[in-house]
Amino acid sequence: MSKARSAIIGVGEVPTGRFPERSRWDIIYDTCMEAVCDAGLDKNDIEGVITVAPQAQPRLTAEISFGKIPEELGLKNCKDVCIGNAGGASTTNCLRMAEHWVTSGIAKAVLIPHVTVHTTIPLDEVIGFFATAGMDLQWEYPFGTTYNGMAAMMTQRYMYETGTTAEELASVVVALRAWAALDPNSMFFGKPLTIEKVLSSPMVSTPLHARECNVLADGGGAMVVTSAERAADITDTPVYKLGHGVRYVGAAPVLRHDDSMRESWRGAFKDAFEQAGVTKDDIDVFEFYGAYPMGQCVMLEAAGICELGDSGKFIMEGCTSPGGKVPCATIGDAVGRGHTGSGVSMANYIETARQIMGKAGERQVPDCRLALATASGGSGMNTTATVFGREIR
Amino acid sequence: MSEYSKPLPAVQPWSRPFWEGTRENRLLIQECKACGAKIFYPRKACPECWSAELGWSEACGRGKVYTFTVTLTGVEEKFAGDLPYVLAMIDLDEGIRMMGNVVECDPGDVEIGMEVEVVFERVTDEITLPKWRPFRG
Predict the structure, then answer these.
(1) How far is the C-alpha of A166 from the C-alpha of A184, rounded, in Å?
(2) ipTM > 0.90 (yes/no)
(3) Domains identified in chain B, total number
(4) Which of A27, A98, A131, B64 has the fewest CB atoms within 10 Å, counting from its CB?
């Protein structure tokens, strides 16, 4: 059973989209100040900064790694800084390390920022970064791998094994974009899609169409974490971390026995649910971060919500969409939000916190008390699952 | 040959025999002399038992497509001239899985389970890439 040790008590975020004029440090200021104010803290209450490592931005990574954020923001009582890099699972690691810092006496409150600006990086450089990140430079990259290509191969196999149709896969994007359309911080705010529009978009890498792939975007967010003990004294809406589970899948996609990641998700969910003392039926919202549409399907199956191969139909029927009986990915995952490198998981955790805090606006799931948030790093090297809740259990 | 501008494999000391093999049109698989494991990709120590007593055997060069994708766009400039191309995972008869390209056929004809055989594409004096074409018998 859970004995919550840490809680998210404040969040801040800027809109995701293409904003070349908005600098990286603009974003750091705006998100960090918002998160600290949202927590009801003073800047000098922050005693640690653990930053999500930005991808493809080496200068920024160096600046953050070597301590610029507390100095820039004037965090007078900051005791230490650290940066966490596990690609899309970086934020998960930052939350874990923050839990250690707030429970071991290093810091009473920790700030976790993330920022990414893709649009000012030359296009070929960005494509090159993502073509090699998460791929093996000896055994995969020389053959022309890309993230889209890897996801496409996994999706092709998934469709072959489960009988999932192109329409069902497209409906995943429709469901995600229905959520994104309600999110002012999404690059697709107010822009829902239809299955026809997904399937009529150009084929990128079979079986994935353009609208089934991610659009690289700029964005950032920040969270404030404190101990479960202190949380309720600081805020009326603490978001307790109740349970956590992870599995390592493997670095090179070609070597993964669990290439759909289903068994790895199953293991992570089992551990997270057990630690939190809950079952899937207790969860009010499933904040799945799958990066590509197939991820939503596989996680529904791994969580035991759908039988193998039934998830596409389930999603096409609207069960995971706004108003559906199993709300999933309420910022629309990376496909609906815009892809900010390692920042999608930050956006996903922020949304999870908002849902528990009751601050999710039009996307708010009624009386949301328990949420499951997932993340994965690289091209799918691991599966992480975390249960958050409104009360210490 | 000198104009080959696509990325070359980042060869490690313990994988060098593999690439020496492809240069002679032979597909070599690393094997552990201690536990008998067939190892891909090649390692400095056996990933099953950590033995450093490793050797090589020649694969028959046949396999089946486990999964694939026809890439049509969204690649680095250096791969753009190859579009459309087939990226695939190949299950070798010896029980290992390799990434590669399926060549010498219409990309639209590739399917999961398709039988393929290795062909060797000499791209530089040093490097020959193993590729795959539909099995001709």
Answers:
(1) 29
(2) yes
(3) 2
(4) B64
